[in-house]
Design brief:
79 residues, single chain
Length: 79
């Protein structure tokens, strides 16, 4: 008996996984872009108090220094 998975089934699974990765990448990129624009706006125009500006800049620095894939892994495994 041959219990091996057919090559076409493996190809379909790989394509589905690739499509999920691309979708997550696009969604994460768009959310990051929108969030970055909002934070930049508040950082430059709305934040009159220095502590709120420093909090926003710290958050932006943290998000820039951690790659998106690592953030996704953190969300998946920790949260």
């Amino acid at each position: 008996m041959n219990d091996a998975i057919p090559t076409s089934a493996i190809s379909i699974l790989l394509l589905k996984g690739m499509m999920h990765n691309i979708a997550l990448w696009l969604i994460g990129g768009l959310l990051s872009l929108c969030g970055g624009i909002v934070l930049a706006y508040f950082s430059h125009h709305r934040a009159e108090q220095s502590h709120s500006r420093s909090i926003i800049k710290g958050y932006i620095l943290l998000m820039r220094s951690i790659p998106l894939y690592v953030q996704l892994l953190y969300v998946y495994f920790v949260i």
